[in-house]
């Protein structure tokens, strides 16, 4: 990138589109200085690294193993010490879920034909915030291929009030076909 950020882009993947969405299309609002950020489904870390420029701490969450490794690599290569990466998922309930590894269409709610499946630990917003001892999140970014409905609709008002602002890319099941 022109400002020195570097991304490792995997061949035959949607990685370039993920970076373009954040940096060329400016899809997301600016992250306030010294913010606490929760990036649910961080993918390879494009938004995470954008937020790392100004945020105090970013929790970058990615459930798919191949994406998580790319996320960790990109965070390390950019010396983003304020990023905490976790390989887990969010859901409407705690437990384990099965998620497909289908690139940008990886999902626990719509399975692409011939996609490799992974089991991953899942948390509700409330249980994750309690586990991490987070009282307030300044910015919640969520782009998790239909799971956002389950996550938000199962979070009570007292949980949602802990987020100052939320950016969600909502999808319908039909959008993933």
Descriptive notes:
This protein is an alpha/beta fold. The chain is built from 6 helices and 8 strands; from the N terminus they run H-E-H-E-H-E-E-E-E-H-E-H-H-E. It has helices at residues 15-23, 46-52, 65-77, 125-132, 147-153, 157-160, and strands at residues 36-40, 57-61, 83-86, 89-90, 95-101, 116-123, 137-142, 163-168. A 5-stranded parallel sheet has the order 3-2-1-7-8, with helices on one face. Strand 1 (36-40), helix 2 and strand 2 form a beta-alpha-beta unit. The protein is globular. The mean pLDDT is 90.
Structural class: alpha/beta
Q: Summarize model confidence as the mean pLDDT.
A: 90
Q: Going across the major beta sheet, what is the strand order? A: 3-2-1-7-8
Query: In terms of quaternary structure, what is this?
Result: single chain
| Terminal residue distance | 32 Å
Helix/strand order, N-terminal first: HEHEHEEEEHEHHE
Number of helices: 6
Global geometry: globular
Rg over C-alpha atoms, rounded to the nearest angstrom: 15 Å
Poorly predicted ranges (pLDDT <50, ≥5 residues)?
none
Strand elements, count: 8
Largest beta-sheet details? 5 strands, parallel
**Percent of residues in helical segments?**
25-40%
Q: Beta fraction of the residues?
A: 15-25%
